[in-house]
Amino acid sequence: MSSNSIEIKKTYDIKVAEVDDGAIESLDSVEKGFDITLDDDLIAVEDGDLVLSKKIHLINDALDEIGFTWYHAQLFCIAGFGYSVDSQMAMIQSAVKTYVDYQMKGGGYPVATEIFYGGLIAGSIIFGFGADLIGRKLAFNSSLLLSSTFGFFTGGTSSYSMYSIFMFLSTVAAGGNLATDVAVFMEYLPSKYQYLNTSMAAWWGVGQTIASLISWAFIPNNSCSSGKDCPSELNRGWRYCWYTNSGIVMGAALIRLFVLNLDETPKFLVSTGRDAEAYESIMKIARKYNRNCSLTLEKLKECGEIEPTYYDSKKINSPKEAIKELWKTTCVNVKILFSTKLVTRSTILIIISWAFIGISYSVFYNFLYIYIASHGGSTGDTPYLVYRNSTLANFVGIFGPILGGFLIMIPKVGRRGTMIFGALSGMAILFGYTTVRTPSGDAGFGSATYFFINIYYACLYAYTPEVFPTRARATGVALCLVADRIAGSFAPVTYWYGEMSGSSVPIWVCGAIIGCLAILAFFMPFEPGKKRSV
């Protein structure tokens, strides 16, 4: 037993010894009759609830016994497409904003971009917190459907105010979707395949490539060249982009509803005291794919009862009471993220990491081309070259998360080592990007940047839900996304400032911040590669 043992008195009296990677050196319950060994699980991230830890352990055993099935393959694709939608939305908005301004606004400060970030922040809060309150299933199934529906309306608007409103609503749903995708996939995944959490971020590059191809197909030949005379009949390209993208997202939404037919995740169910539903959710997969599963409902119930800290709609009698209980449960979930010293340290470092990557990544790419132009370079003035380079870079970015998935499986590298590698290599490439003066240089450095930055991004996306407690997993992810998007919302301000002043300071500061992400990763206390996620 190490010297930093602590005693937790909650449902049971237990001794927990925390080591540097967040593993448990020993866990001895004084409750007789339990012979469950929890050494395989990352229970150091939980808030001392031994009952929940034992139930999660049984769920993990059952998932490992069933193994990887066609259901998991489907979930990898359709949950991964949530990454795609989030990145598609960002790329489409970025690609069409100039031509929307030509037709409806006439230039000036990029208001729509700020509204876009506002939608992402609102979606992260609504869907992220909601997924821990009422379950992952509703958020997962509704987000893409709502995003595509409002996306169609966005493409049909005829005024800047209506464009901003419907774009905001579409973005709320898309941003909320990202808060649940990784959590849903991870809570069904056998521990042997946890590397797929990182590789799933390859869908981010797929989405960016799709958006670049859509923009490349419609904008060059269906858009105005300036805002002086830009009627709608000569400027249909941005509408075609919204319609096409929304159609693709609608297709994914219908697949979620009618093909995948997702059940509520078993880990969420046991965390809210619904053992019978959790058992049935797992056995449904085992029966469908003819896999052995020794889990029984009796084993789950023998672990004890979960403390009633969760939101239960059956006990609500009025809207006022519902709001009160929702707020109370949300506060409890947030407190869980700071329940111990190790969990608090982990939560703070992760949130700071998301804020750093949000501000640096967004500002760098908004400001980069201003910097290059002000130093005598040109990355291509024609729409063809712009969209060609963007498509190439985003396509190469697909393979960054795939490499990241392999790197995390190397014992001496793991999640933290992969993030350190991705951050430092990304910083080096971004600083090198400032030497670009030609379209071919832009294509090469752009591709390398997306590749290495996506290694870091993919690992951070997967690591974040892995080290948050089960009850507050979606809440934690939501807080991280909010930090990311609040920081990213400063990008238009910097863009506007840079365009006016031509200063080169922001680009060097942002590159340095990306390098600092490696330091934050080094001090993160947990290494999920050594334990099963809870």
Automatic annotation (TrEMBL):
InterPro entries according to UniProt: MFS, MFS_dom, MFS_trans_sf
Keyword Ribonucleoprotein among UniProt keywords: no
Keywords noted in UniProt: Membrane, Transmembrane, Transmembrane helix, Transport
Membrane topology according to the record: Multi-pass membrane protein
Main location group: membrane
Pfam family, one: MFS_1
Localization per record: Membrane
Occurrences of domain Major facilitator superfamily (MFS) profile (ranges): 72-529
Gene Ontology cellular component annotations, sorted alphabetically: membrane
GO molecular function list: transmembrane transporter activity
Keyword tRNA processing: no
Membrane-crossing segments per the record: 115-131, 138-156, 162-189, 201-219, 242-259, 348-372, 392-410, 417-436, 448-464, 504-526
The protein, known as: Major facilitator superfamily (MFS) profile domain-containing protein
The species this protein was found in: Pichia californica
Lineage summary: Eukaryota, Fungi, Dikarya, Ascomycota, Saccharomycotina
